[in-house]
Q: What sequence folds into this?
């Protein structure tokens, strides 16, 4: 069973704190991972992609990948109320033949940043 | 640069009616996808296309059809609408560049079948 799992939340953090969002995956063959942000009533937008073990930083966002433990995380530093959204974790389906670039999606974690 | 454009944004259909959800992208992306999103159920893949003239079924294709006659356009056809097709529909596209799997989503179509 190919799965990407996330805690649905809501995760509530005060403004200025670090928000930590976690995602686990079941298929050890998964190689590529993505974090999308989805505001209520809007479409998902790509925040980060990560392919190698370790950390990848982009502004206030850091994605972390640990293939041995099969988890991916997203850290948001200096959280702002505007970061309040649902965060979707996705992985490239490793078992799909060909190059269709299909993704396996988690159900998302709801984040609320309180002023 | 418009990205991915979906029309209409909202639609109410009566049971048994048909309609086409339009999706156009101007990024010359080879890969295009149709998803539906229901509350608490996540994104479900309906159909996808890896290039003009090539389409394939996703997880939940029943009740839908697609075509891809050009790189830019990927319309989704609903035949004989049913209440179970009430959902938010997203079209997305992706570049063919190596490792660039990031999807660009359209703004969505909110469909209600009554």
A:
């Amino acid at each position: 069973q190919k799965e990407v799992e996330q805690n649905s939340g809501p995760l509530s953090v005060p403004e200025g704190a670090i928000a930590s969002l976690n995602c686990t995956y079941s298929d050890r063959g998964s190689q590529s991972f993505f974090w999308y942000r989805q505001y209520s009533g809007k479409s998902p937008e790509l925040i980060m992609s990560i392919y190698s073990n370790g950390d990848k930083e982009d502004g206030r966002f850091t994605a972390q990948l640990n293939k041995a433990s099969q988890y991916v995380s997203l850290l948001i530093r200096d959280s702002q109320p505007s970061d309040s959204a649902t965060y979707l974790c996705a992985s490239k389906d490793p078992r799909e033949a060909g190059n269709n670039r299909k993704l396996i999606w988690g159900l998302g974690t709801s984040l609320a940043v309180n002023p | 640069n418009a990205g991915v454009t979906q029309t209409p944004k909202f639609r109410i259909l009566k049971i048994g009616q048909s309609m086409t959800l339009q999706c156009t992208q101007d990024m010359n992306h080879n890969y295009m996808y149709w998803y539906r999103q229901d509350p608490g159920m996540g994104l479900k893949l309906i159909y996808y296309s890896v290039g003009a003239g090539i389409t394939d079924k996703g997880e939940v294709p029943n009740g839908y059809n697609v075509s891809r006659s050009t790189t830019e356009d990927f319309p989704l056809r609903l035949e004989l609408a049913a209440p179970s097709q009430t959902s938010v529909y997203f079209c997305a596209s992706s570049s063919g560049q190596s490792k660039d799997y990031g999807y660009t989503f359209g703004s969505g179509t909110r469909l209600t079948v009554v």
About this structure: The radius of gyration of chain B is 13 Å. Chain B touches chain A through 22 residues (CB under 8 Å). The longest strand of chain B covers residues 42-51. The CA atoms of residues 31 and 43 of chain B lie 17 Å apart.
